[in-house]
Design the sequence.
């Protein structure tokens, strides 16, 4: 493990302590893989060399059950670990070429991207072994890929070799499935051209959803209050020479023939009918109250 080592100790029933034993400042995110719930360092301030950070082991009365941590140092090296009984184990990299095919789902936070990805997962797509349990209501995204995009791909000072190695380490947890459609879900693609250059064989789907009153989640409520220009920018990433499908969210969840077109674009080969479509809505616990009237 070159230039990177962390130590994690649960000091008592209330606190877990992360020690940075490296010469670099690091960003990290503790998370529970099954719940797809991550807990980043406060305010995304890096943890300095030789310093430590303490986090509660429960939140709002719920045991967080940390079983993984991913750390990224200031030069863009990403390493993923599993946690069991205070033992931290490095996850082996998986050398998946960035030229492999991916489907990127993007849009504005709170605009229904999670439930859309959940529907793709129902039909057989893969969105990462660290994307949580299918029965989860929210998220459905790879924590490691999200961190790779935010802290590695989005930076200007990371060389290509480091970037590739960090991608391999993230793929060690994501676990690319060669026989499936592999989904990534980065939102607010301010670094869209970097993503296109790094993952050249990628299709994009931008989820288009209109604002409405209220919202069933904090993210949905924030989306409904967001600035129109901000939403337009998030829903219309600047891509060069890359396929993109601007998907009408309402129409996808109400019109199975339209959904068929979306699924064909993604790469699925089966034919939808009303029963299969309704079975999907039931399986993902789709709430019709989310539809814009």
Sequence:
């Amino acid at each position: 493990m070159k230039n990177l080592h962390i130590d994690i100790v649960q000091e008592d029933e209330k606190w877990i302590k992360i020690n940075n034993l490296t010469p670099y400042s690091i960003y990290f995110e503790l998370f529970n893989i099954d719940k797809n719930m991550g807990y980043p360092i406060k305010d995304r301030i890096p943890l300095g060399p030789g310093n430590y950070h303490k986090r509660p082991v429960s939140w709002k009365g719920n045991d967080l059950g940390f079983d993984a941590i991913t750390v990224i140092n200031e030069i863009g090296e990403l390493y993923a670990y599993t946690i069991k009984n205070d033992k931290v184990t490095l996850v082996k990299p998986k050398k998946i070429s960035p030229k492999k095919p991916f489907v990127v789902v993007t849009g504005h936070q709170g605009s229904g991207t999670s439930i859309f990805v959940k529907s793709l997962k129902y039909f057989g797509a893969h969105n990462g072994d660290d994307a949580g349990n299918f029965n989860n209501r929210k998220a459905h995204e790879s924590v490691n890929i999200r961190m790779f995009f935010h802290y590695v791909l989005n930076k200007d000072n990371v060389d290509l070799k480091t970037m590739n190695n960090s991608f391999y380490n993230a793929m060690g947890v994501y676990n690319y499935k060669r026989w499936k459609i592999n989904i990534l879900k980065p939102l607010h693609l301010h670094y869209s051209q970097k993503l296109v250059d790094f993952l050249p064989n990628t299709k994009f789907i931008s989820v288009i959803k209109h604002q409405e009153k209220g919202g069933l989640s904090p993210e949905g409520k924030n989306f409904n209050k967001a600035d129109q220009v901000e939403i337009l920018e998030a829903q219309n990433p600047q891509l060069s020479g890359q396929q993109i499908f601007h998907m009408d969210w309402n129409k996808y969840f109400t019109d199975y023939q339209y959904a068929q077109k979306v699924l064909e674009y993604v790469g699925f080969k089966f034919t939808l009918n009303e029963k299969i479509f309704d079975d999907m809505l039931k399986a993902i616990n789709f709430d019709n109250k989310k539809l814009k009237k």
Observations:
- The chain has a mean pLDDT of 84.
- The chain has two domains: 6-90, 102-290.
- Residues 6-90 form a domain with the Immunoglobulin-like fold (CATH 2.60.40).
- The two ends are 55 Å apart (CA to CA).
